[in-house]
Amino acid sequence: MIITLASSKGGVGKSTITGCLAGVWAADGNTVHIVDLDNNRTVSRWFADAARRPDGITVSTPDPTGLTEHLADLAATTAPDLVLIDVAGTYERALTVAVARAHLTLIPAAPTEADIYEAARVARHITSVFQAFGREPLFRLLLNRVQPLASGAQLYATLEIVRLKLPRLKTRIHQRAAYEELGLSGLPPHFADLKRPTVAKAVEELDAVRADIEELLKSHQTEALEGVA
Ligand SMILES: Nc1ncnc2c1ncn2[C@@H]1O[C@H](COP(=O)(O)OP(=O)(O)OP(=O)(O)O)[C@@H](O)[C@H]1O
Ligand SMILES: [Mg+2]
């Protein structure tokens, strides 16, 4: 299974969610491979220390122009249970290939006007890529950095998502220290100290995201767009 984390906007949480989801599946004994397409090499840095990196997680940093071949190589060699593609926050050819190859694309967005506007742009881009092949894409907005106390702005953002007819994953990811710490500790919540309330809540939330994804993929048998290279 291939999941792409895409957004044309920086800082929405692509790398954070990539690392966290890798932890969710790896904690269950799956092999997870992260393809880090961001020049900043964020996720690669977080998981650079092989001694600390959770078992089952590997990372590669291929040349984005060779993504198609890289994915084919992975499938033919290590064949990981899950491949997560963390795309750079710009419109590049790699974004198109990454969404075309994915069974599901997640578009993280905080409940702000700017993030939702960008999410809608990415959604249109994905739709147009698939339309060229007469196919329906499978993508979902994933609300991230939701504040624990609902505000008027957050309510407005939710209404805007409905108005723009942006399909979104049911579970929302809240603003939590456990997510912020991934960049410093290199440990996704599933491998962090579960006794800490912030970690326990993040784990619960991420398990719910996994359940949403599995339910979605069960009802949508998506296939990669083979024509895009
Ligand atoms: N749910 C969250 N709770 C707390 N902090 C978060 C959350 N999601 C993301 N962050 C923080 O927001 C910042 C940006 O997140 P991240 O690097 O994952 O975004 P990105 O979309 O990958 O950015 P870029 O486009 O620059 O690669 C990081 O400091 C991260 O720790
Ligand atoms: Mg990133």
Mean pLDDT: 92
Order of helices and strands: EHEHEHEHEHEHHH
Number of strands: 6
The first-level CATH class name: Alpha Beta
Q: Give the strand order of the largest sheet, numbering strands 1, 2, ... along the chain.
A: 3-2-4-1-5-6
Q: Assess the beta-strand content as a share of residues.
A: 5-15%
Describe the structure.
- The chain has 229 residues and is an alpha/beta fold.
- The protein has 8 helices and 6 strands.
- α1 packs across α8.
- The protein has helices at residues 14-26, 42-46, 67-76, 93-101, 113-131, 152-163, 177-185, 197-219, and strands at residues 2-5, 32-36, 57-60, 82-86, 104-109, 139-143.
- Strands 3-2-4-1-5-6 form a 6-stranded parallel β-sheet, with helices on both faces.
- The structure holds adenosine-5'-triphosphate and magnesium ion.
